[in-house]
Amino acid sequence: MRKLILSMHVSLDGYVAGQNGEMDWIYVDEELLNYTTKLTNQADTAMYGRVTFQMMDSYWPTAGNKPDATKHDLDHSFWYNKVKKVVISNSWKGNNVVNAQIIGDNIIVQVQELKQQPGKNILIFGSPSASHLLMQHNLIDEYWLFVNPILLGSGIPLFQNINDVVKLNLIESKIFHSGVIELHYGKK
User: Fold this and answer.
1) Does the reported pTM lie above 0.85?
2) CATH number where 36 lies
3) Pairing relation of β-strands 43-49 and 121-125?
């Protein structure tokens, strides 16, 4: 069975975005970007909520074509263009998006079916609303949390509407020079 892996930046006080969805506090540098290729190398499906998909799809398809593209831009653009993309969205259900499968009905059943299909891991980046739904139904197998050294005080929380206790094992952790700490957990 394929694993559904959540990759998310989070503030020290547990928020994934500010009150208005701002994410300008997230620290990303070359060291962190190189490290996260471990995630993308093990995944052949990218899952997003509608808002995150629109943000990603406006940048990544052509990011590698720009004259000033970094190695990460080249690598991630290549990965983004070759993987299957799945968008969880009630507002888009029934719509056709050229380069993505939209899941808007029977979301839980469809995600469970995706996990049963052959292939590599399914990777969900950010997408707080979609992640909350998946967490509520205990569908996430691993958490890759990048804890940023900042306190936001309020905003969109990482964890919300968790119905049952989910016991996790720490698989690995890493401290980056920036002060960001990666915590990689898997379900027991």
Assistant:
1) yes
2) 3.40.430.10
3) parallel
